[in-house]
User: Fold this.
Amino acid sequence: MNYLKNLFCVRPCCMSWGKFRTMEKKLYGLIGFPLIHSYSEKYFNDKFKDGNITNVEYKSFAIPDIKLVKDIINEKPNLCGLNVTFPYKEAILKYVDEIERDAQLIGASNLIKIIRKDQKTKIVAYNSDVYGFKKSISPLLKPYHKKALIIGKGGAAKAAKYVLAQFGIGVSFISRNPFISNQMSYSQIDRFILDEHKILINASPIGMFPNTNEIPDIPYNFLTKEHLVFDMIYNPEETRFLKMAKKQGATTINGLSMFHNQADRSWEIWNKLRT
Assistant:
């Protein structure tokens, strides 16, 4: 409980505590489309309830066009931050005033902080996927994990590549339409490719609720107990992708711990609990 009180303490954005208490609840939220799969709203509001925090709330905003984020920010003056999910992690950078280092280097953001002061609004983009992914995968890495294959090419895939590079792990991407040197088509993935790449990461929405029967088209029979298979999806908790890998003896992990880690890091950034 002490951890919750510390992590989820509410610090007023750009106003005194006394003034904030007389105003609307402090609001945070999530943008993306669709959001039927997301646990974010429940996760944050449950944390607020457990921590007995009553002057803050978290809402989901399923927007079919990233341009609508401007309306959300302008129409909700108590909005202090947003998480950003598929498919807007890259596009959101066009709508911010400042980009922190990780988000700048990756070219994607899953988190924006909204600072309102002197009738002006400043939007800063961050990337907490880096923290979430790194904390989740690092305990599972072995000396033979030298190369990784990543399914997907969006913001989550870029964050994974950024983290793996810090461990000296080379990355190639699997794409339906490969067009650069470090991309492969599904038809290229064979025994030799999988033997060389002992890490396999799904950073795409393939297999995510409600499309739980979908599965990346790779030869699972060539996976081994030395393979580490990471699915960033957490709904369902065990995708067909992970089930197929587990049958071959591979170490598997879903995206739930990554989600929790990045969510907690988001709250820290919004409230400046640490840099």
The first helix runs from residue 2 to 7. The first strand starts at residue 26 and ends at 32. The chain is about 30% helix and 20% strand.
